[in-house]
Amino acid sequence: MRIAIHGRNFKEQTKPFIQDMFDELATRGVEIQVSEIFNAVLNESGVERSQSLTYRTPRQIFDANFMFSLGGDGTLLETITHVGEREIPILGINTGRLGFLATTSPPQVRLAIHSLFNGSYTFDDRSLIRVESDKDIFGGLNFGLNEFTITKRDTSSMIVVHTYIDGEYLNSYWADGLIVSTPTGSTGYSLSCGGPVVLPQSSNFIIAPVSPHNLNVRPMVVSDNSIISFEIEGRGKNYLISLDSRSKVVDHTIQLAVKKERFKARLVKRNGDNFLNTLRSKLNWGMDSRN
Fold it and tell me: How sure is the predictor about 285, in pLDDT bands with cuts at 50, 70 and 90?
């Protein structure tokens, strides 16, 4: 078996579990390839491991059976850009905080590896959002798992985002910005702006304004077969656009549209994992201290 690994800095108390992970993989004879970023972290932390390959760019990743993401949800979003259209299954190991996507805790790592070897898992395919523009904004990585956002940059004044669905005019949003979220991203930025929680397989986009001027404007759910395009106005001539955790400043002449990406992110779902359980746990539903 071949496994590629990407991660970020971790706390000292997490080190024994990461050491256990490498020990278990070595015992099972797994061929390992580690991102250069995470390899530097491992060297600094003193995690012992047998000689492993490293990769600098996504193109250098070997033909892996699985990809491990060690960190929080942000690290997993980054890992997805490493995998891209190859759709290598990703196991998210949560050494961060929230863990909506990275659901395997460090003490469960050995059990998770055992599950991969005995087939006790399924694949949870998540739709991605793709940005189309007349300029290369994100260096070819123009897809994301959570959301695409347009926000004001250098002025206190609102911006106006004229929005179209399949070429037909929808609305002009007078706001600090606009979010187009996937179902996966519905528990992220969109949720904090009043958007609904949408189940991962719902085949929708959520259009949610950020601090809208008109209070009768509300988030809207549309089919992810739609192409959503934008025209931006404002006193400033530069705006901030973001795709998951990647942000770029663009000028008002940019032409932008989003649609569903043709490939998906494939997450490893261990037997017993349940999105509704994760939802209740992370959002503290049913935990009112008055009850």
Answer: confident
Q: Which amino acid is at 215?
A: L
117-120: list long-range contacts, CB under 8 Å, 24+ apart: 117/1, 117/28, 120/270, 120/271
Helix (H, G, I), strand (E, B) or coil at 115: helix
Residue 280 in this model has a pLDDT that exceeds 80: yes
Sign of CA dihedral 198, 279, 72, 70: negative
Mark residue 205 as left, alpha or beta (left: phi above 0; alpha: psi -120 to 50; beta: remaining): beta
At 35-86, the pLDDT tens digits run 999 999 999 999 998 877 999 998 999 999 999 999 999 999 999 999 999 9
Show the domains of the chain with their CATH numbers: 2-119 (3.40.50.10330), 128-262 (2.60.200.30)
* Distance between CA atoms of residues 26 and 24, nearest Å: 5
Residues 6+ apart with CB under 8 A from 240: 149, 150, 151, 152, 153, 177, 247, 248, 249, 250
The Cα 144–Cα 126 span in angstroms is 10
Active site residues: 73
Give the end-to-end CA distance of the chain in Å, rounded to a whole number: 49
pLDDT digits (tens, 9 = 90+) for 123-166: 999 999 999 999 899 988 999 999 999 999 877 789 999 999 99
Element (H, E) at 275: helix 275-283
- 169: number of Cβ within 10 Å: 9
Sequence-ordered list of residues with C-beta below 8 angstroms from that of 189, at least 6 positions apart, any chain = 146, 147, 149, 179, 181
What is the Cα–Cα distance from 50 to 75, expressed in whole angstroms?
Answer: 24
User: Beta strands of the chain (E only): which ranges?
Assistant: 2-7, 31-35, 53-55, 66-71, 90-94, 121-133, 143-144, 147-152, 159-165, 168-175, 177-181, 204-210, 220-223, 228-234, 238-243, 246-251, 256-270
